[in-house]
Amino acid sequence: MNITQPIGETLALIGNTPLVRLTGPSEAAGCDIWGKCEFANPGSSVKDRAALYMIRDAEARGELKPGGTVIEGTAGNTGIGIALVANALGYKTIIVMPDNQSKEKMDTLRALGAKLVLVPPTKYADPCHFQHVSRRMAEETEGAIWAGQFDNTANRKAHIEGTTEELWEQTGGKIDGFTCAAGTGGTIAGVGMGLKEKNANIRIALTDPHGAALYNYYAHGELKGEGSSVAEGIGQGRITANLEGAPIDTQFRISDEEGMIWVERLLREEGLCLGLSSGINVAGAIELGKQLVSEGRDNPQVATILCDTGFRYLSTLYNAEWLGAKGLPVFDWLAHEGDA
């Protein structure tokens, strides 16, 4: 990790996550599908990487001073990462989050000592959107900085310098494709830029949930969302600063139902308890693998991001009543829970 300031022992735990071959997805794609186990970070998600880089960048620029406060608007995981990093470095944390996110994320943020401000979910154009609320709070709070993960390119730098290098080393440079969904755009843009510098022939694919606008943007040049998704932390309706210049070669749109198939299978067959964004990413990786196989590539190697742990969604994705209310398939063992 290329950060100029020294990193304490605990912060050095961020990154260097395992890369695992996913058996079921590999069989479905006809080639090797690899998952980067970002749930192995201290905050149990890929967002720890961005949190560390954004805070260190603010320190390096002299904006964040001892005893200061980090304020951010987030669907939850970035806030959790920021709270952990801030705790380790002696800063306070205020997190603004839409109130429709999982209870587990809210409880985790409070347990970590962050001040949590909940706001109703709304469109980005609304001044009450969680990003705008958090930015105004930072402007009004003495000694505070706004992390601004969506347009703070220290976010994607974390993936250019960290995630990319790890993937390259772990695959021995034998990687043919990479895909993931976009929330801020930092991961897909950062890894895409980093891998393209190493080999311009690596296929970079966006995997978009329904309701997000980027699929249509990269396919047809128009920011237009269709449908909806219950996935938290992914889906974007604008080109953020992190997405500017992202080398997207192709794109896939994955439904919640298809993503949930892989959430269920990866838990039942491979012992990986993951969130829906991971299931959507894996479904996209399978599509990318099939695409590369159809072009005649010999056992292409495709990697994706396993974003976070399913333990963060016990009240939603792993709750039969919630799944039924959303019209999503209920895992067999949840449907029969309590049966004799």
Automatic annotation (TrEMBL):
Its EC number is 2.5.1.47. Pathway: Amino-acid biosynthesis. The keyword Protein biosynthesis does not apply. Pfam families: PALP. It comes from the Bacteria. PROSITE patterns: CYS_SYNTHASE. Residues 13-308 form the Tryptophan synthase beta chain-like PALP domain. Signal peptide: none annotated. Transmembrane segments: none annotated. The keyword Plastid does not apply. This is Cysteine synthase A. It comes from Erythrobacter crassostreae.
